[in-house]
Amino acid sequence: MQSRQIDPGGKERTFALIFQTGDEVVSNLQSFARQHQLSGSHFTAIGAFSDATVAYFDWEKKDYKKIPVREQVEVLALTGDIATDEKTRQPKIHAHVVLGRSDASVIGGHLVEAHVRPTLEVVLTESPAHLRRRHDEQTGLALIRLE
Question: Distance (Å, rounded) from C-alpha 14 to C-alpha 41?
């Protein structure tokens, strides 16, 4: 993955991240966020994956159902945020993705893992205010709290 800050001197840091064939998206985003101490950030992306795992949150089980996608797909939309996890004090990635198949059908959900082929172009912006995730008893999830 290559990266460059594209707004030197601005209040909001904005980065272009270019992933290459074989790069794993979520782990690389996580490493980049730690390296640059990002929180209160959001990102969008387009590109393509050789494979991915998406997930659907099952409300009754309070857990994610993982759905493997084992084919070349277009990334029609990838959006997400980065906030600091209250327990670990580390940046946490939360991303949703819509993937286009060769027959023009789509699949989407929470992005768990994905491998790039041939590229993924990400624009990531950090706001001056930092966001925090706290454990929510009702859902069992770490949710952003504004208070």
Answer: 9
121 burial via Cβ count (<10 Å: 0-12, 13-18, 19+): middle
Show me where the domains of the chain are located: 2-130
What's the distance, Cα to Cα, between the start and end of the chain in Å?
35
Q: What is the pLDDT of residue 89?
A: 84
CA distance 110 to 23: 18
Give the separation between CA 22 and CA 50, rounded to whole angstroms. 8
Sign of CA dihedral 116, 133, 129, 91: negative
What global pTM score does this model have? 0.87
Name the CATH architecture for the domain at 2-130. 2-Layer Sandwich (3.30)
Q: What size, in residues, is the chain?
A: 147
**Token couple for 134:** 């706290």
* pLDDT of 111 higher than 70: yes
